[in-house]
Amino acid sequence: xxxxxxxxxxxxxxxxxxxxxxxxxxxxxxxxxxxxxxxxxxxxxxxxxxxxxxxxxxxxxxxxxxxxxxxxxxxxxxxxxxxxxxxxxxxxxxxxxxxxxxxxxxxxxxxxxxxxxxxxxxxxxxxxxxxxxxxxxxxxxxxxxxxxxxxxxxxxxxxxxxxxxxxxxxxxxxxxxxxxxxxxxxxxxxxxxxxxxxxxxxxxx
Length: 205
What we know:
By secondary structure, the protein is mainly alpha-helical.
């Protein structure tokens, strides 16, 4: 009888025998990792803004007005930045019809006054982050409540024809406002929109 052929197996291990992880060596002039991540996030936000907000004319105007409000009123200061742009875009783009500057401004105030920022509310998610991230995570509980209360007060002022107090401008001359309304009869220009238009073009640079 003939013996069966022998089979030889050769195993080659490419890993180091000690299985110790190699230490990562980074040059001394390497850029700060956190700063790089922050810059990438800013780039994503800029691309998102260009794609989602630039086409909404009323949204751009309303953002400028709220930026001024955040600068003038300390209560609103924590809202300035990326969260403000997200808030305005979500509030205006979800409307079933096109909104003028006045209606868009009031709609954003209504969203804030309804408690979107307070604890237990829907919050504002960041669309530029892979994981579910709250864009208002930096806001304290007290800041959230103060902004909500201030938005409710601003809505009351605008309802009683005192929007100029919210905008921080002098009361608009009624004759001038009536003249503009007559010139734009048949359009979507209202007394409310006239005040916002004048504010955004004359005061905010």
